[in-house]
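Q: Convert this sequence to structure tokens.
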Amino acid sequence: MKKLKTIASIAGLSVLGALAGTAPAAAITVGDGTLADWNVTVADSNGSVFGTVNPTGATLLGSTLSDNNDNSNSYNFAPAPGGPLGGGQNFDAEFMAVAQSGTHLYIAISTGQRPDNGAANYEPGDLKITNTGGLNPGVYGIELGSTAGAAITATGGAGTTWKLNSTANAAGVSALTPANQTIGAIFSNASFRTGAYGANGNPGTQLDTLAVNHSMENASGGPANITGSGTLIGAATAIYESGNTVTTQHQIMELDVNLETLLGTGTDHSTWGTTFLSLQWGPACANDLIVTFALPPSGDIPNPEPATLALFGLGVLGLGFARRRKAA
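A:
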């Protein structure tokens, strides 16, 4: 009986702690306009700090820093001097990080692609996620495109596929964007248009799910026609772009994606431990690119909420008191 009393006492302390609000740290907030909850500072004129990525209330799965030079706007389409693929600050894919909290996959991106650049220089691409191993491997896409001057603040708006001219600038919005390719929509079996220099080996960055043979609408290279593919499987839980409201040289993008939807596992998490994710983002012209690897998502579901812990503790307490009364 002494041992049971000790267990009940410990459970009582757990209940009091839970009821007093000693909950785990809050998870990442998508839409707060900063990456402070990733322990990341985004600031103008090379003031950004991406050194130690430590997401609040989530496990970091991977991060990549591509280029932190805010003062280069060379548009040479070569490895140097304007960044990895030469897009300069306005086309810079600077930073990407991926974290997990339970079934939530959080994605953070810092880029020089901003709505205030105008239609000629604002041509955001979409997020490409390749799932290797685990259940339902394949290529997935999340629609992120929006028209010039309009930052994304929520899911569900009209997605955008850009036409590109011979100098790799956006030449208007394609009328061929499928109606279900809305902002935040997630597609499996997804195909991507090659960028303006796709013929030279640059990977595609624009989600294209139009399942008929159609023109690339790209005057500067790549195959003449393409047949898109993609099966709509859901939508991101939350999505947000800062525009130029935080800085004048950067845009912050954040997503919250349900891993059960993305991996097509439902509540079966048994294959998560063998999953390997590769995430890719860049402007539509693909003259800059950032890739991050996520190794691997945890198969564990979230820890019980404080209220659940409290109920469990009360149950243990009740058992202890019942046993004591019976012994008396």
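Residues 27-302 form one domain.
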